[in-house]
Amino acid sequence: MNTRAAEQTCLSLLQLCDSFFTLAQIQANILKLGLRNNPIVLTKFTSISSRLNAIHYATSFIFSPGSEAHHYDAFLFNTLFEAYAHTPHFKRTALSHYNKMLTLGIRPNNYTFPFLFKACAGIRDLNLGKTLHGSVSKLGLCDDMHVLNSMIHMYCSCENGIMFAEKVFDEMPKINSVSWSTMMGGYVKWGMSSEAVRLFRRMQSEEGVRPDEITMVMVLSACADLGALELGRWLESYIVRGKFEMRSEVCNALIDMFAKCGDVDNALRLFRNMSHSKRTIVSWTSVIFGMALHGRGLEAVSLFEEMKRAGVVPDDVAFIALLTACSHSGLVEKGKQYFDSMVNDCGIAPRIEHYGCMVDMLSRAGLVKEAMEFIDTMPISPNPVIWRTLIAACRAQGHLNLGERITKNLIKNEPMDESNYVLLSNIYAKMLDWEKKSTVRKAMGKKGVRKVPGNTMIELDDGIHEIVEEIEKNCTSQFSRSSSEKVTSL
User: Percent of the chain having pLDDT more than 70?
Assistant: First the structure.
């Protein structure tokens, strides 16, 4: 059998491969036919191995002793990079194989870097991303839109990478809707939602550029973060006028935006108008969260039960929404029942967020002692948020000595967190112990701990404005003002 015929035989077998056992048999055939160094066959072998969650098996075969890797090509390595970039725990392996590729003298191409940037985004390694950026520049690929979009995504995924993403975005020779959406998504991810709205408005002024459904999801997420209800309503009408496809993601983003902006009835309207086939667990969770956050706990519980009847299996996030509803509406017994059901009936291991919901529920109901007992029985260590929730309840319910003791422990563990000092100061104010309250404020000054200025966003006719609280230097008094230098219009 000639080489071409042997290749076709192996490729046909691989195309039909649907199990690891068959894959191993095909591997034996590849060896028997003398194709162990054939890049075409090995590329297909790698792709099928990835589909069967056996990428490590493929790698051990490709780079086994006796292999002649200098026969390999960029297409084979790109397939490896793609496979590892999609794994949950082995993304860094893609980058180690990139070094092997360079050592073998194989030149990367414009298909190489999107997979490498995806892997780098997954491990959030900014320095490694910068190194890859340098390679892109050296190879003259800085005008490839697909490479640059994946680079922006990588920078947006890394802490302190947003400024590098902005630079790449601003220097792109041509920008498509993916570029705009990725940059907006980065702003939303890092709490810069006002910048995402600015970018959307800039996009609207560009000729020949039309937002797509992903763009709308990003800007709706920004609206939800800002509480910009009027802008959100305008975006809904813009989506309808523009005849955008009402995919599940768009509907879910609209529901989430209306729910977070306080228009729960509109969120429920959108949810009810969705066809049953389009409703995902995200749709149900978003509307349940909306009801939960606005004191409509019984409706949230009813929706949760309706979701189960519809055959949608609740996940851990759905239970967070449900427990939040019970907490905000004082449904203590129901909350306990659902927590037990989550563990015993659904087999979901509680996360710190679930424990936090339970502590919050008990604290809001004034059951401070029971909340403390619940914390003591937790199998995982409570985080500062849980302790602060309990401290607030101690202050509200008059358990001031307990609150004082917990807060002092928090300060010991987090000496530079200003919120702990504020909590202790408030407890002393409740005790009418002004001397101790003053001592706390002085201790903050000595340690260089500054209270973070509060801020809020408001919508006016000409846009969204930020009002920032100004704090006097001696940290003993504070006031809030809105002035021309303190308000930033979007």
Answer: 92
Count of CB atoms situated within 10 Å of the CB of 163: 8
Ranges of H-type helices in 104-176: 112-123, 126-138, 145-157, 162-171
**Is residue 216 a contact partner of residue 252, using CB atoms and an 8 Å limit?**
no
- pTM of the entire predicted model: 0.83
For 44-72, b where at least 16 C-beta lie within 10 A, e where not — what string? Answer: bbbbbbbeeebbebbbebbeeeeeebeeb
Buried b / exposed e across 350-374, counting CB within 10 Å, b at 16+? beebbbbbbbbbbbbbbbbeebbeb
Residue 37 DSSP one-character state: T
- Confidence band (pLDDT; 50, 70, 90) for 395? very high
Reply yes or no on whether the pLDDT at 461 is more than 80.
Answer: no
Residue 226 near residue 218 (C-beta atoms within 8 A): no
Cα(354)–Cα(317) distance, rounded to whole angstroms? 9
Res. 224: pLDDT tops 80:
yes
Alpha-carbon dihedral 204, 208, 209, 210, rounded to 10 degrees: 90
Task: Identify the pLDDT of residue 470.
Answer: 56
Contact 292, 285 (CB under 8 A): no
